[in-house]
């Protein structure tokens, strides 16, 4: 049998390929839910910029609206202290900036940061 015509995967190349694919899938299963939660947060605060009823609302009322919408969308880890208001010259900006840590292996963590900003309508 001629060795030049033999083709295919060896056991080691198959094991190595499966380890790489498995590692990528494992990492994806840990990261994807974080991005889904952030998408939910963005979808909750984005309509605030168009909501004219909030132009005269106090910060506590806006926080209450945000937290109710988060609760409906099953994002329960956002607390009122995570919501920040920044006053600029002609608008108020709502910020929900946070970072999430994912325990990977032993003492290795993956840190993912998100910044969500929206301008509230002015009077």
TrEMBL record:
Matching InterPro entries: DUF4845
Keyword tags: Membrane, Transmembrane, Transmembrane helix
Bilayer-crossing regions: 12-36
Domain of life: Bacteria
Transmembrane as UniProt keyword: yes
Transmembrane listed as a keyword: yes
Protein name: DUF4845 domain-containing protein
Source organism (scientific name): Litoribrevibacter euphylliae
